[in-house]
Amino acid sequence: MGNLEGKVAFISGGARGQGRAHAVRLAREGADIITFDIAGQIDSVPYPLATKDDLEETVRQVEALGRKALARQADVRDQAAVEAVLAEGIGELGRVDVVMANAGIMPVVGPTSTKVSAWHDAIDIMLTGVVYTLEAAVPTMIEQNEGGSIVITSSVAGLKGTARSLRTNTYGLLGYTAAKHGVIGVMRSYANALAGYNIRVNTLHPTGANTPMVANDAFLGSADQFPELFEAMSNALPVQLIEADDVANAAAWLVSDEARYVTGVSLPVDAGASVR
């Protein structure tokens, strides 16, 4: 029996990469999964985003572990759509105990990053979208009166500035950095407001992970053009990219009873990048 037997987790951005890793890891611990993803392209993002097939593959992997999964296409920027996915999931699975506000993009390099739309997309998805995800779930978690855990995906870029020159200080990188810093304040506010209900709220801060958001030609292929950006994001430990499972393992601990008194914490999983 896993640490999350009988629990249900609500995960944004679950079609692939970190979101899928969270879904599979929590399913391995016994949780059923409700997840959603835009599963479509966004103009400011210079690499291919997830597809409907990716979302279906997440379901397949969760169900292969003997757990239930409900996955829908929805845009985290659409509050009504987020609420509808969760309502359908609760209708089918009965409850929600864990929230992983994970949906994210990296519009930080390339021509699209210099357009103001990259700022708006970053803020709308990774800051406003986090609030929409939490607001959808919190009323049910309170009504259940059994506590719960919320984890917001931030970044090492939420712990330090990563721009080292004006040419890398694009609208996209500014939006990404602002959103990843901003969710720390969101986390602390919810941690205080929900503590009396025994609902814990924390942020995770990964360094670059080997997922399609980072390991793509548009981003890694720009290393020679923007060496100062990659130097700012370098790790202290001798690893270029961590794995999505490294972050999912930390998340699985944070949402388990083993971390039952851990709340209001910004937890780096960053190979020492934040101390460089």
Automatic annotation (TrEMBL):
CDD domains: SDR_c
GO molecular function, one term: oxidoreductase activity
Protein name listed in UniProt: 3-ketoacyl-ACP reductase
Pfam families: adh_short_C2
Keywords for this protein: NAD, Oxidoreductase
Keyword Transcription part of the UniProt annotation: no
Oxidoreductase as UniProt keyword: yes
Gene3D superfamilies, per the entry: NAD(P)-binding Rossmann-like Domain
Signal peptide feature range: none
Family, similarity comment: Belongs to the short-chain dehydrogenases/reductases (SDR) family.
InterPro entries attached to this UniProt entry: NAD(P)-bd_dom_sf, Sc_DH/Rdtase_CS, SDR_fam, SDR_subfam_1
UniProt-listed PANTHER family: DEHYDROGENASES, SHORT CHAIN (PTHR24321), ESTRADIOL 17-BETA-DEHYDROGENASE 8-RELATED (PTHR24321:SF8)
